[in-house]
């Protein structure tokens, strides 16, 4: 499956009216935008069975660098616990790595197999170490026995009042740059709700040598992040980190940025 087809399967909207339209597997409705699992479940099965990794970066050194940038940006010592949100996380190793360093982590993803794979990173005693409850919107919430890891199995774009102003940090690896333009506003709106005043967003995006007008993955620069309909409505730009680690994808560079949540009025 191509990267473009992969994201068309992942980021679609669930039709709740007859006034929706569908084009190339992408559905948009007039009154609400949410993420639907679609064919992403089958894609994850392929990944977990040894197929193409797509955009996955299974390199713990990259996760160590990300956490170092985060602690630098928050002006905290490396042993000060942070509450970190990882939206559209898949089975990103960063979640377990940050947890292993003493931080409190919350991940959100719609694919059960991805979060199941993530739970196994915490140890083989899956059933003993994790408990699950159903929430009101039909998803599942998994909690680790340590009390410092929570996995939401459900739609990232749904309102979650229990997460309001909860996080010191958002770790976004390629999520913003994978979303179609109309999906960015509701995504950033949720992150603005979930992030504490003065909390930060660590975001990784792709810098493309060619085909910048096409995506996903989309070519993303500072101005794209800071559009009023994106992060610019609630966040301030803090720092450009440059290339955060090399990619094995020709013509693309992995770039990092730091944003900060403004004070709530």
Would you kindly provide a written description of the structure presented here, covering whatever features stand out?
- The protein is 29% helix and 28% strand.
- By secondary structure, it is α/β, with parallel strands linked by helices.
- The strands form two sheets. Strands 5-6-7-4-3-8-9-11-10 form a nine-stranded mixed sheet.
- Strand 1 and strand 2 form a beta hairpin.
- The longest helix is centred in the N-terminal third of the chain and has 15 residues, at 60-74.
- The model is unreliable at 1-31 (pLDDT under 50).
Can you summarize this structure?
The chain is an alpha/beta fold.
Rg (CA only) = 18 Å
What structural class do helix, strand and pairing data support? alpha/beta
- Uncertain regions spanning at least 5 consecutive residues: 1-31
Beta-strand percent range: 25-35%
- Estimated helix fraction: 25-40%
Question: Average pLDDT, to the nearest integer?
Answer: 83
